[in-house]
Please model this.
Amino acid sequence: MTALHADQLIDGYLARLRVAAIDLPSSVREELIEDMRAHIGEARGHEPAETDASVLNILDRLGEPTTIVGDARERLGIRPAEPYRPGLLEIAAVILVPFLWPIGVILLWISPAWNWRDKLIGTLVPPGGYIGLSFILAAATTQVSSCGTIRDQAGHLIQSSCTGSPELPGVLLVPLTILVFGSPLISAAYLAIRLRWRPRPPVAATA
Amino acid sequence: MALIRDTPRYAYELIEALGKTGLLTTEGTLYPLLSRLRRDGLVKTEWRESTDGPPRRYYELTAEGRRALTAFKNEWTSFRGAVDGILQEGTKS
Model:
C-alpha cells in the first residue's frame, strides 16, 4: 500500500536535492538524483506496510540533501561556485547603455552579472538609449510636419491637411516628456540596482 | 571495496551490509563515494535486470581496485598493529 503523501514527500526531497546540487556538473547532478530515486524505490520495496512515517524514515536515513551534495563535492573535487563580483565591465555598461547604446549593450550582454530579463530591459527601455530616442524624435517631428494641399486647375485651395498624431494636452505632455527623456537614465538606474541586489545563485553548504 | 571484492553488488545491498556494521550513518553519502571510485577506475558498473523492480546498477572491483584494496589492507594491518602495540604498552605501565 502506498502512503498517503509518499509521492509529495519524495518529490519534495528530490527537489531540495536538485536545488542543493545546482552548481554541480549536470552529469554528476543527474546521476546523483537518479541514484537517490533508485535507492528510495528499493527502500520502499523493503517496507512491509508503507506509511508516511516510514517514507520519512527512508529519507532521514538517506541524509540531508546539503550533506550529500557537500560529500559529493568533496569526493569529486568540485569547489562551490563563487558568486560573481561586478567590476569595471558592469560600471562601464551602466554608464554607456544610455549614452553610447551599442557599446553599452555589448558590455551588458557580455557581463554575467545580469539575468536575461535585466539585459532585455537594459537593451529595449528605450531602444537605442539617447541615440535611439533622438532618431525616434526626429522621425516623429518629420511625420507631424508633413502637410499637404490640394488645389484646382486655377490654383484655388480645395483642401489642406496635415498627417501625424493629434497634439497631447499640456498636462500630459510634461510628464510624458520627462518619462521619455528620463527612461534611459531610469533603465541605467534599474541595472545598477539589480547589480547591487541581484539574486545570488543557491550555494549548498558543504558538510 | 571489500564488500564487492568477490561478488558484484548493487548500492542498496552495500548500504544494508554497511548498516549492519554501524559504519554508515548517512546512507546517501555512499553514492558520491561509489561515483568517485567509478571515475577513478577502481570499480566498474553494470546494469542488470531485477525480478522485483527496475534494473539495478551493480558495482564490481576492477583489477586496479583490487590492487588498491590490497595496498589499503596492508597499510591498515600495519596501522592497527602499531595502535595495538601502543595500547598494550599503556595497559602494562
In short: DSSP finds three helices and three strands in chain B. The mean pLDDT of chain B is 88. The first helix of chain B runs from residue 11 to 21. The CA atoms of residues 18 and 87 of chain B lie 27 Å apart.
